[in-house]
Amino acid sequence: MSKITIIGSGNIGLSLAKGLLAKNYCQASDIVLTRRNIKNMTAEAALGFNLSDDNAQAVASAEIVVLAVLPQQLNHVLDQISTTVKPTNQLIVSVISGVSCQDIRSKLGEETAVIRAMPNTAIAIGQSMTCIASDKATDEHMAEVTRLFETVGAVVTINEDLMTSATALCACGIAFFLRSIRAASQGGVEIGFHAHDALKMAIQTAKGAADLLLQMQSHPESEIDKVTSPKGCTIAGLNEMEHNGFSSAFIKGIKLSAERAGGLYKN
User: Fold this and answer.
1) Which molecular function terms from Gene Ontology are attached (predicted)?
2) Same domain membership, residue 181 and residue 68
């Protein structure tokens, strides 16, 4: 299988590597993980991954190079690997927020094949919602990256100009939904449940709601209609939330996150 180098073995990079291994996309020995300090990566070494603190050397023989560093670290990394990257023979996959395909090609060469991917932290349990996009990649390359990220969740192909929006909705969105679960559990405590029971109930209810939409392929409003009755308790609660700006606050939060995400990387 393809030799893969993942530059930046933080939460996203490591989760991707372990997902590829778990789903038999490739062997651990086919993956190189890089980090500035590899002394604390004994668990990864025990799994059979190759480790390196030399980014330039690590990309030399790779077919796919995954860039998984912080936006402010990217220029330094690109300078490091620019001498060993083979633009016509390697595929660059960037999971870095706010960085365009052209930003990367301007450092590595205009012939470089670049695809952007935006997973979220649910990648750690194989449940990421990953959006992928490119401006010039071939259908073959897009299919390969789709297959790569399908090992750790669901994948949607979008236009590159929507990648910042995908960051807000999917990557930042994890925190938004977690906060809503936390709020629901606090409400449960207010009405009489112990904290641990309220949290368990809120989590399972949220999971059930999401699975209901996925499995039934229905719209949220159609499922809401099934649990609201005239003068009932559900519609009373929903209307109270809306009167206090629930949907509006959620939408505004997503919009502001999208604005901030667009400014994370500066050339």
Assistant:
1) pyrroline-5-carboxylate reductase activity
2) no
Q: Is 267 part of a structural domain of the chain?
A: no
Is 189 annotated as a binding-site member? no
71 is in an annotated binding site: yes
Please report the pLDDT score of residue 264 as a whole number: 66
Looking at residues 105-126, what average pLDDT do you find? Answer: 93
Beta strand ranges found along the chain (DSSP E): 4-7, 31-34, 50-52, 64-67, 91-94, 113-118, 128-133, 153-157
Q: Are both 54 and 111 inside the same structural domain? A: yes
Domain of residue 48 covers: 4-164
Q: Identify the sign of the CA torsion 124, 40, 17, 118.
A: positive
Which residues 6+ apart lie within 8 Å of 192 measured at CB? none
The CATH code of the domain that includes 205 is 1.10.3730.10
Asked if residue 70 belongs to a known ligand binding site, the reply is yes
Asked whether the predicted pLDDT for residue 256 surpasses 70, the reply is yes
